[in-house]
Specification:
Strand order of the largest sheet: 3-2-1-4-5
Mean pLDDT: 92
Order of helices and strands: HEHHHEHHEHEHEH
Number of strands: 5
Largest sheet: 5 strands, parallel
Number of helices: 9
Structural class: alpha/beta
Low-confidence stretches: none
Strand content: 5-15%
Length: 213
């Protein structure tokens, strides 16, 4: 890990600067940040529904009808994804919570450009690393080369380093990095900066020890 990334990894609240060569990006890679709805029981229903339909569009329609709330950070991330796709005309690989935050009209017009990452059938914690491992498989399958990472400002450094680990290239980063938390998140560590900082310290140490970054 380069020194400049080591410093940002330690001072995670600094986020990442915008990459100079953004136009090289050929796919957006978006990581969610918490959610306001659905405990493990609802998540089991979601996994079952996706297995039944094997369709992003049908599963997202089912989620919307259930009045799922992705939370403020994911709405901000979804907004940035929309802006990047409109500006650079590239596809996106997004964690499912972000896909639910797209407007129905916009998604209907761009669904061929959106690939959703859904939680696995097994009852395992679907953490940042797990999402990126699945996303990396899509990147290799579609022959993408320069992913543009979109994530919460407090998470983007770790996300970018995991992408480097599993995609073999340090991703591009947009200057647009949401920095809001949601007090109603069901994930306690994404409710405010104090909870996040407490948990993130141990997460980052574990990722170094496990060589996830």
């Amino acid at each position: 890990m380069k020194l400049k990334y080591c410093i940002r990894y330690a001072l995670f609240w600094c986020g990442m600067p915008q990459s100079k060569n953004m136009r090289k990006g050929d796919v957006v890679l978006a990581q969610s940040f918490g959610r306001n709805s659905w405990d493990e029981i609802e998540m089991k229903k979601l996994k079952r529904k996706f297995r039944e339909t094997e369709s992003d569009e049908k599963t997202l329609e089912w989620i919307r009808n259930d009045k799922f709330d992705p939370g403020k950070p994911n709405r901000e991330i979804a907004k940035i994804v929309v802006e990047l796709l409109d500006e650079y005309h590239i596809p996106a690989i997004v964690q499912w919570e972000i896909a639910t935050a797209f407007s129905e009209e916009w998604y209907a017009q761009h669904k061929k450009e959106i690939i959703c990452i859904w939680p696995p059938e097994e009852n395992e914690h679907f953490d940042t690393r797990s999402v990126i491992i699945e996303s990396a498989e899509v990147i290799r399958e579609k022959n993408f080369v320069h992913p543009v990472v979109v994530a919460h400002k407090q998470q983007i450094v770790r996300t970018a380093l995991i992408v480097k680990k599993y995609c073999g290239i340090f991703p591009l980063t947009s200057k647009k990095q949401p920095n809001i938390f949601d007090a109603h998140s069901i994930q306690w560590w994404t409710r405010n900066i104090f909870f996040w900082s407490f948990r993130e310290f141990f997460v980052r140490v574990r990722y170094i020890v496990k060589r996830y970054v």
